[in-house]
Amino acid sequence: MAANGNASVKVEVCHDDSAPPVKAQTIDQLHSLQKKKPSAPTTPRKQQGADLFTAAISDQERQQQQLQSISASLASLTRETGPKVVKGDPSARKSAEAPKAQITHHHHHLTAPVVPISDSALKFTHILYNLSPSELYEQAIKYEHGSFISSSGALATLSGAKTGRSPRDKRVVRDGSNEDDLWWGKGSPNIEMDEHTFMVNRERAVDYLNSLDKVYVNDQFLNWDPEHQIKVRIVSARAYHSLFMHNMCIRPTEEELENFGTPDFTIYNAGQFPCNRYTHYMTSSTSIDLNLARREMVILGTQYAGEMKKGLFSVMHYLMPKRGILSLHSGCNMGKGGDVALFFGLSGTGKTTLSTDQNRYLIGDDEHCWSDNGVSNIEGGCYAKCIDLSGEKEPEIWNAIKFGTVLENVVFDEHTREVDYTDKSVTENTRAAYPIEYIPNAKIPCVGPHPKNVILLSCDAFGVLPPVSKLNLAQTMYHFISGYTALVAGTVEGVKEPTATFSACFGAAFIMLHPTKYAAMLAEKMQKHGATAWLVNTGWSGGSYGSGNRIKLAYTRKIIDAIHSGSLLEATYTKTGVFGLEIPTAVEGVPSEILDPINLWADKQAYKDTLLKLAGLFRNNFDGFTNYNIGKDSTLTEEILAAGPVF
C-alpha cells in the first residue's frame, strides 16, 4: 500500500512479439521456404588429381551427365534411344510448367536423330533419384495401396501375390562368354535362356517403365572393400522397392553420387507387369532374367523385393571368383581382439542367432567376400525373418525395426498399427529390411581381417552328429559342398519323420559356378591364412526328432565361445566311426557325455542304424559331384570323396 492509502499500480510493458511477415506472396512460395537445399558435400576426394577435371564441370553440367546416363539405362534397343527424363515428382510440378532440368533422347550411336515412334517417346519420364527414406515414405503412403506406418515407425507394405522368391522362374542367358564357366544341368539353379528371349523381356520391362509418369532410380554400391566395389543401378516403379534397396545396398555419399558415372550392373524391376507366357522359356507370368554379358537383370511378374537382393548376390557369385575373391553365403562377426568367424547354415540352424553376439562386432548377417584384403560384407543392410519375433528372443532385430525399416507382409492392428509377428495371415515369410547401422554393435565399415574360424552349422534331426567336431581341409570341402541340415515333422506338410536336405555351399539357389570351385577356393584361403573349420550340430541328441531332445542353446553358445577363444584347439580329441569326425572329450560349460552322440542313445543299435541311414543320404547326394575334377588332375576330388562317410 502507498503512504496515502491508495494501492500502488504496477504497470507491465506489453512486449511486441510480432515478427516481420514471411517473404512469400503465395502459399506455394511459403511451402518452398520450408525446404532448404542440401548442403554441398564435405567428404574429401579420394583422388586429388580428379579435382582438376571435376572443378571445371558445373552442377548443371553434372546433372545433365547424370540424366544422360539414366536415359541410356532406360533406352529401347530397337529404337536406339532413351526416354526424355527429368528429375522430380510430376505431382509436385504444375502441369503448365515446362521442366527445367531435362535431357531429351539419348542416342547410343552417332547417327541422325531417330524419329519418335511410340507414345512414351513423346512424354517426359520423371526420375526420383536416390530419394531419402523420408521422401520414400511419403511416396509409398500417398501412392501405394497397402503401405502404412507401423507403431514402431517402420514402413509396413505388401509384396503382392508373391511373398517369396520364384527360383523356378529364374533364368540365366547362356552364351559363348559363360557357357564353360557356369554350372549347368542337374542340381544347378541356373536355368538357361537365349539372348533373344532376354532382349524381348528387357524391351517389355523398359517399355513398361518408360510408360509410367515416374520411376525410382537408386545408384548404390556392393561390397564394403573399396578395391573390389561394384556400382549398381536399380530402376523400379515402387517406392517400397527403392527404400528396400536403399537399405540393402551400400549407400553412397553425395560426392560419390556426383561422380558415380556408368553403373557396373543394372536392374530393371518391372515386377508389377507380367512377362508374356508365349515367350520362349517362360513357364509362368513371372520371370527373373540375368544377362551376365550385358550386366543386366530384368524382373517381370513379381513384386517380392528379395528377388533384387538375391539376384545381385548371384551376380557377385560370378564376378568375384573371376577376381580370385570367394563369395560366401554366411554370417560374419569379429571379436574385440580382431578374430573373425564365418557362420554357414541353412534355415533353422541358428546362423543368425549365433552370429549375432553382443560381445562381438557384426560384420554382416548374410553375404560376404573373402579377398586378399580380408573379409567384407557385400551389403549395406540386413534382411531378417520376422515370424514369431520378440524383443526377448532377438532384441537387436526387434530394436532395428524403426523409422527407415521396411516391414514386408506383416499383419498389424488396424487402429494402433502394432504388428503381430505371430500372425501368418499373409505369409509365414514376413521380413524386415534395415540398414546395418541399426544394429548397435555393427562394425562400420563392414570389413575385417582374414577369418580365424569357419563354422558349418547343421540342425541334425536324426540325432547322430556330435554337437561339435573339428574338420580337416578335405572334410571341410566335403561338408561345405554337401550343405546339410534336416527338416522335422510339422515344418513341411506331410513330413512324418526327419528329412535330410542338402544345399551346396549352404546356398545352392544363388551360386553360379560349380560348387567344387567355391569349395576349393575356401580350402585354399583357409590353408593360406591358418583358419580352422568346425562342424556344429544345433539339432538333436539322445535320439532322432520325436524321441531325443534338442541340444540346449546354452550349450551351443558355450561351444561357440570355446571356438572363439581358441581353447577348443587345445582340447583332446577322439574320432567317430563312419563320418570320421574328431570330437573333443571336454568343453567348458558343456556336459562331457553329450559330446559323443552315442552316449545318450538308450538303443545303441538304433543309433548305428540311424547313423548309416544318414551316411547313405550324404553319399547319394554327393553322387552328383563325383564326376567333376578340380584342378589339372582329380587328386583333390579324390581327397574330398575320401573325406565322406566310410561304411
UniProtKB/TrEMBL annotation:
Q: What is its EC number?
A: 4.1.1.49
User: Looking at the Swiss-Prot or TrEMBL record, what is one Pfam family this protein matches?
Assistant: PEPCK_ATP
Q: Is Flavoprotein found in the keyword set? A: no
Q: Name one GO cellular component term.
A: cytosol
Set out the biological process GO terms recorded for this chain's protein.
Answer: gluconeogenesis
This protein's UniProt keywords: ATP-binding, Cytoplasm, Decarboxylase, Gluconeogenesis, Lyase, Nucleotide-binding
Which portions of the chain have biased composition (kind: Basic and acidic residues)? Answer: 86-97
For region Disordered, the annotated ranges are: 1-51, 79-109
Where is it chiefly localized?
cytoplasm
Reading the lineage from the top rank, the first entry is Eukaryota
- Where in the cell does this protein reside? Cytoplasm
Q: Which GO terms describe its molecular function?
A: ATP binding; phosphoenolpyruvate carboxykinase (ATP) activity
Q: Which reaction does it catalyse?
A: oxaloacetate + ATP = phosphoenolpyruvate + ADP + CO2
Known pathway: Carbohydrate biosynthesis; gluconeogenesis
Q: Does the keyword DNA-binding apply?
A: no
- What does the sequence similarity comment in the record state about its family? Belongs to the phosphoenolpyruvate carboxykinase (ATP) family.
State the NCBIfam families in the record.
Answer: pckA, PRK09344.1-2, PRK09344.1-3
Under HAMAP family, the record lists:
PEPCK_ATP
Name under which the protein is recorded: phosphoenolpyruvate carboxykinase (ATP)
What organism does this protein naturally occur in? Papaver somniferum
